[in-house]
Structure of Acyl-coenzyme A thioesterase THEM4:
Amino acid sequence: MTGSITSQPAPKGSEQPAERPAAQLSPTTPPQEAVLPPRAPEAPAPGTLVGSHYDHCFGCGPQHPAGLRMTVVAGEGLDVTAEFTVGAGHQGGPGLAHGGLLTTAMDETLGSLNWLLHAAAVTGRLETDFVRPVPVDSVLHIRARITGVHGRKIYSAAEGRIGGPDGPVAIRAQALFIQVKLEHFTQHGRPEDIKKALDDPDLFKRARAFEVNP
Ligand SMILES: CCCCCCCCCCCCCCCC(=O)SCCNC(=O)CCNC(=O)[C@H](O)C(C)(C)COP(=O)(O)OP(=O)(O)OC[C@H]1O[C@@H](n2cnc3c(N)ncnc32)[C@H](O)[C@@H]1OP(=O)(O)O
């Protein structure tokens, strides 16, 4: 049996106000005062891999057993490119990518941009528009760029295309990342994972660098 959603009259007192408030900018749109800073001296050279920030990250960790294992390449400016191959294990509808996983791929790519500023930052807000379905076996070609920085807030945007790097857009995303100090991880993360992470000499080097230059 198929059902349909019937419209009910709104309860008394819940009517829309006669005048709508003026359209507001999305919190992922940089304010006028935002700037585009230069790449950090430590930023990966254009054309080179940005590198995983944590071996067990679901998005980029090479040791994650079921993660997306994404690799991201630094662009010439405050931009990166990445590819995500949609496998059979990534399905939502039959033969189609799950939207949440596509969002994860966008989040991971957008998060990689912060390395170009040598900033440790976490996603505060992520908005996605799913423009067309993405079939299993497609490669999602993602291009992402920083659109502005204001204080601790890093604004960015990305598109994911299918059928080639210049193919039609399948997904768009805008994000607001917030710079955090090392304590964000050490205070909130599961202690055994924090200990393991701090024991990793490479990660520790990066984390220390953030601590002295947050
Ligand atoms: C030992 C191990 C070392 C590891 C070294 C590795 C380092 C590199 C790891 C990178 C990892 C990336 C991984 C992939 C990307 C994720 O998946 S990150 C995981 C998902 N995100 C999270 O878990 C974040 C959870 N949220 C939080 O912890 C806190 O809300 C935040 C985001 C840190 C902000 O809290 P806060 O520091 O107290 O700052 P707060 O004053 O609330 O906000 C600052 C500003 O941002 C604005 N803001 C904050 N949230 C929002 C929002 N949702 N919407 C709009 N505006 C907002 C505020 O309004 C405020 O604006 P102003 O007043 O300054 O104008």
